[in-house]
Structure formats: structure tokens, C-alpha cells
Write the C-alpha cells for this entry.
Amino acid sequence: MLVVGANGVGKTNLLEALHVGAQGFSPRTRADARLVRFGEDAARVSLNGWESAVAVESEVTIRPGEPKRVRFNGASLTSAEELRERLAVLAFTPDRLAVVKGGPLVRRLYFDRMLGRVFPPRALLPAEYGRALAQRNAVLRRTAAGVSSPDAVTPWTQAVAGLGSDLERARAELVALLAPRFAETAAALGLRDASVRYEPRALTVADLDARYERDLQRGTTGAGPHLRDVEIGSEARDLRRYGSQGEQRTAVLALVLAEAGLIRERRRSTPLLLLDDVLSELDDERRSALLSSLPADGQTVVTATARAAVPEDAPRPDLVVAVSPGEARAA
């Protein structure tokens, strides 16, 4: 589906509403209150569609100051996380370029969220590691202040080592599965010899014990997956430092499409793709390559300022929706 309209008329808002209705949160902000229209006391998104030939219906209601209400096929869910386990959605927005051009923290968060989408049983692993790490750091600071003993650090050292090693292995497995798909998709989009790499490092109790004094002085744990990075490159170049804006955009798009293929393979369901303003900085050849790379058995929503953004030799959209302020209709 192609969504067209002038800048500022609400194309991105439409994609954002689809994401909220299918995932329970906005891809643009984590402040739910910002999703409520000025002057209104609540926001609600209702979606109806099909998932693997099965009819589905979701509803998300946001009322500032109250817990978010999420319903799926008429039943209340305890959290938005449950909705994400049922519906797979991947989004590209211009600010996603930070996945390539931003710092290591952005990439860690991005790949850890991908870990949960591709391997649902491991979705909580990054958070569990983060909680153990926070506890160890807190005990280190209390010990340094003389209000706790070194023995209190031991169980959290063991937890950080165990969960950290599990997270390292999970990330490495994810990247190993993703890498060939990423390289193939990036090549189709004109980015040559693209690569994504993550070398796992075992984290042991002995490693943490060896740096105990340093960690005690600093009040933080100085080793573990919370300090690692995922390398994204092309032709032996680090795209964060040496990639152009166009190359960085292509790399992020290739990551999204590669993940979509991986999810389809493992979960037997093609995710909904929401691609906002993906065509504006690509030439016609790359626009055609991108549109030809979209999953044929799934649904993709692409925004553009005009139909002419789709090259003549590219696949034609099944539906064109024209957006004007406060209205969206089939063109």
C-alpha cells in the first residue's frame, strides 16, 4: 500500500497509529501521553485484519495517568508485550538511521529487541541481565561506602556472569542468522559487501572477580554485554564512521528486510512492514530495487509525497491511499 500526501498532512501519524494498534507503543516516542490529541482525555486505536489467514482484531486505549488498556480478539491482555507476541510489525522511520550512525547503545537496544522478535522465548533475557547488572552495581556502591560487605556482591556476580554469557550467545546466534540475509538484501539495494558482525565473549565469574577492585572504585561493572557493539559495515568500512547518509539509510532498510525474512522463516508469518519516507533519498534504481525486495506474501505500507516516487519499472502498489489533514481515502 502506498500512502501519499504533502508534507505535514499526517502520513506518518497513520503509520504510527498502525504500529500502536499492533504493538502497543509508538515507534517515535515512549511517552504515551504524547499520543493523545490536544484537548482530548484519551486515544484509542482499533485494527482489524488477518494473520496467517486468521481474522484478528486489536484495540489499544491510552489514557494519561492510567495503565494502558490492550485487547486482542475481544480479550484483555495484561500488557502490550503480549500483543507483540501475537502480531509482528517492523517499522522504518528516518530516525532509525541512528541504528547505524549512532553509538553502541542504540545498536545494542535495536538488536536486543530483534532478539525478542526472532526468538520469543529469549525476549526477557536482556532485561533480566540488566536487572542483575543494576543490582551488582548497587551492591558495589554500598560496599564502597562501607554499608555492605564484599560477600553481598558474590551472588550478583554469579547472576551477571551467567545471564551475560547467555545474552552473548543469543546475540551471536541472531547475528549469524541475520548476516547472510543482510548481505544479500543490501547488495540488491546497491550496498556492496555489506556485513553485520558480533563476536561473542564469554563472561565468567573469574573475569568479574579479576576486576573487582576496579569495579568497586567506579561503582559499575566494567565487563559484559552491556559494553559491546554490533559492527555494521560495507567493503571493510565501518558505516558509522565512513558511510554516507545514503549508505546508512540503505543499511538500515536492509536490516529491516533481512529481519522480516528471518521472522517469516522462524515464525511462519510475514510481519507487517511500515516504511516511512524511505524513497526520498534513493535514486530510481534503488527505489525499484527496494520495492522489488518487499515480501510478496505480506503487507507493506510505504509513505511518499507523490505517486511519482514509485518508478515506472517498480512493482505497482495494490492500493494507493491519499492523506489530507484529518482524512485518508483510497485514491
